[in-house]
Amino acid sequence: MDPFEDTLRRLREAFNTGRTRPAAFRAAQLEGLGRFLQDNKQLLQDALAQDLHKSPFESDVSELITSQNEVDLALKNLQDWMKDDPASKSLLTRLDSAFVRKEPFGLVLIIAPWNYPVNLTLVPLVGALAAGNCVVLKPSEISKSTEKVLAEMLPQYLDQSCFAVVLGGPQETGRLLEHKFDYIFFTGSPRVGKIIMAAATKHLTPVTLELGGKNPCYVDDDCDPQTVANRVALFRYFNTGQTCVAPDYILCSPETQERLLPALQSTITRFYGDDPRSSPYLGRIINQKQFQRLQGLLGCGRVAIGGQSDESDLYIEPSPGPRFPAAQFQDADAPRRCGPELEEIFGPILPIVNVRSLDEAIDFIKRREKPLALYAFSNSSQVVNQMLDRTSSGSFVGNEGFIYLTLPSLPLGGVGNSGMGRYHGKFSFDTFSHHRACLLSYPGLEKLKEIRYPPFTYWKQQLISWALDSQSCTLL
Ligand code: NAD
C-alpha cells in the first residue's frame, strides 16, 4: 500500500484541470498563506520556542516577518511577474510574435530542514504558489512542534485539491521520492542533497538544491576588532549557530586573533550577560544527536572562551576559538577530524584558523568546496574586493553578516557543493516557473517566407544569413 498515491493523483488531476493557472487563484492562495501566518502567529512562536528555544524576536525576524514579506511581495508583483517577456527578433521573424511565457511546472515537492522550520518551508512555498503549481510540502520531522502546526493548520488556508502536507523522516521521504514530480525544491545537507538528486534523475525531474556548507570568515589585520566581533557574534550565535549561512570559522593572523578574542568575549557578555544560559536571546541545540556532535567538536581544539555545556538542557555556551594553525590542514597526513575539516559546525562554536596573509586565506578557501556564503572583514576595500574577485561562493558579504537575506532583490543559493538554483522574491517565482520559448507566426504571408525554401541560390543564402542576424532588424 502506497501512502502517497491517492494524494499525489488528486493533486495532479487538479493541476491538469488548469485551475491553478489564473492569477486570481494564485493570489487567493497567497492571501491564504498570509492569513495563516497572521492567525497562527502565537502558535508558531510557541512551536519555535519548543523546537529551538527561539525568542519571539528571533522567530519574528527570521521566520514570520520574512515569510510574510515574501507573501506581500509576491502579491504586489504577481501580475507583473506573470507577464510574458518579449523577445528580440531577427528580420526573418520580424512579423512574428516572440516571447517567453512563465508557466507552472505542475506538481512540485518542497522538502525542508529543521533549523528555520517556518521560513525554509513557507518561503519556497510562496514561489511555488505564485508560479501556479500544485504543491506537496514535506516539513522536517525533527522540528516536531512546528511540523505539527504546519500539518494541522496550513491546509485549512489553502485549496486542498492543489496542496498537501506530508509527514515523515528519511524512510517515508524516500518512498515519496519514488513518485514522479515536476520539480523538487530541497533544502538540507549536501549528503541528503545527493540522495534527492539521484531520486530525481530517475524521472528527469529538475531540482533546486539549497545545501549547507562551511562559510569562511576572513578577518584582515586592518580592522576594528570590536566592530568585527559584534557583527560576527550576532550572526554566528543567531539561532545558536544553527544557520546555513552563518560564519563557520574565522581565518586571521595570530596577531588579529589576539585582538579579536577579548573583543568577542566582551561582545558575548554584552549580548547574553554573565550567564548566557539564562539569556532569553540564546536558543538551544535542536536535539541530543546534534548536541553530542557539537560536544565532540568542543574537544577538538583549545577553546578560548566559553565551552560550558549541559546536555539535559541542550545548552552550549557561545564558544569562539578552538584554535588551529592553517598548516595543520594543508598537511595531507594531519588528522582531519576537527574544526574547518568537519562537514559543518552548525552550532555556537567558532573555530579560528591562523593564516599569515590574505593570499594564504584565499588559497585555504580555494582548496576547499565552494561555500554557501563567504565573509570578509577589512577597513580596506581593496582587500574585500580581492577576496570577492579571487574566490567563488553562493553569496559574498563584505563587513557584514547574513543581513543580505532580508533583501528579496538578492538570491539565496549555493554553487558547487553548497547547492544549485536560487530563490527569494522574483527569483523564487522564476525558479518554480518553466520559461517556455514561444513564437506565434501567421498562416499567411507565404510569399515573404518563400525565400527560406530550397533550392538555395547564392543570393538567397546571402539574404537569409543577413536576415538571421539579430542586428538586421535594428538596421532597418
Ligand atoms: P537534512 O539533509 O538531514 O534533512 C533535510 C530534509 O531531508 C528533512 O526534511 C529530512 O526529513 C529529509 N531527509 C533526511 N534524510 C533523508 C533521506 N535519506 N532521504 C530523503 N529525505 C531525507 O538536513 P537538516 O539536518 O534538516 O538541516 C541541516 C542542513 O541543512 C545543514 O547542512 C544546513 O546547512 C542545510 N541548510 C541549508 C540551507 C540553505 O538555504 N542552503 C538552509 C538551511 C539549512
What does this entry look like structurally?
This protein is of the alpha/beta class and 476 residues long. The chain folds into 3 domains: 5-212 and 423-434, 3-Layer(aba) Sandwich (Aldehyde Dehydrogenase, Chain A, domain 1); 216-392, Aldehyde Dehydrogenase, Chain A, domain 2 (3-Layer(aba) Sandwich), CATH 3.40.309.10; 442-475, no CATH class. It is built from 18 helices and 17 strands. It has helices spanning 5-16, 23-39, 41-52, 56-82, 119-130, 144-153, 170-176, 190-203, 225-237, 254-272, 288-298, 327-330, 358-366, 381-390, 426-431, 446-449, 458-468, 472-475, and strands at 85-86, 97-104, 107-111, 134-138, 163-165, 183-187, 207-210, 216-219, 249-252, 309-310, 315-316, 319-325, 349-354, 373-377, 395-398, 419-420, 433-440. The strands form 4 sheets. It has a 6-stranded mixed sheet with strand order 5-4-3-6-7-16, sandwiched between helices. A 6-stranded parallel sheet has the order 12-13-9-8-14-15, with helices on both faces. The protein is globular, with a radius of gyration of 26 Å. It starts with a helix and ends with a helix. The relative contact order is 0.13. Mean pLDDT is 92; it is low at 327-337. The structure holds nicotinamide-adenine-dinucleotide. Nicotinamide-adenine-dinucleotide (NAD) binds next to α7 and α8. This is Aldehyde dehydrogenase. The active site is at 210.
